[in-house]
Specification:
With 316 residues, this protein is mostly helical. The chain has 13 helices and no strands. Helix 5 runs antiparallel to helix 7. The longest helix is centred in the first third of the chain and has 25 residues. It is globular.
Length: 316
Amino acid sequence: MTKIKIENTMPNHLFGQIQRYSCGIGITELLYGQAPWQVIVLFAVISQLGDVWFLFLLGGSLYIAGRHFPWCGVERRRGLFVFGLVLIYISLIGVLKNVFMLPRPPGATTSLTVPGLPILFSAVIAAITTAHGFGFPSGHALGTTLVWGGFALVLDRKSNHARFGVAGAVIFLVSLARLVLGVHYPVDVLAGIGIGILSLGILYRLTDDGTAPTRLLFLAVVIGFVGLVINPSVESVAALGGALGGWTVWRTVADLTSAHPADRREVTVGFAMLALAAGFVGGIYALRLSYIVTFLGAVVAVGTIVATPLLSEKLT
């Protein structure tokens, strides 16, 4: 497949100037340069609250568990709305980064050295303290805003202040973590948060306050297709495959899926299926398989997650 080259235009130049200006302020360099390795590792762990794997499991768990989700269960359609936001994020961030094509700070790919760590732990530390590819906007800031913000919107327990307070705190900490780790400029995370808030507001209204997830899943397919056209890669192929699998299966099982699980045994079976599907997706991504295998694997994995409530009901 031919890769379409997006030429830098005036908006790209403008954002590039803003990014360089934020670099001149020195916030990223100050935070990263002054922090001891213990603090950097702590913020690397915090940043996982906005990483794809965590958001994927969070959205999938809320959808599968329904009212049995600890402390804050919701009707499954609204849970699927949150899971759909994860698919939107995965597709959208690929499009945005390859449109703007702005770099990360120098040193974003440099691994943190922690003396005395075993090789395995050193590899994990390296993975969670570095970042590669384009930097604008911040994917962690965008994804955290979309998913944690969507989480706060669909919940009908606790007060608005409590729900949005928790979501806001997570968004702030994850965004700060990306600066402490030295993998983003301030404008990157601010843009990610801004785009996330705007997108979430539009998507929430588009889906009738999160009760019509079919529209969200279809939009994820459209954005995923755009991303594949702009930049054919394992990531864009997986994004399109996952969105297509989720949308196709939901159209089939929507009327058959109960609003809530019957009991905790059903939830337990559902969580086991979610773990298997998530592990399958992670394996496909890590092995960097061919496009067709990646696409079909993502279709099957996400489709299985969407079908999990119905399958776990039948199995129990």
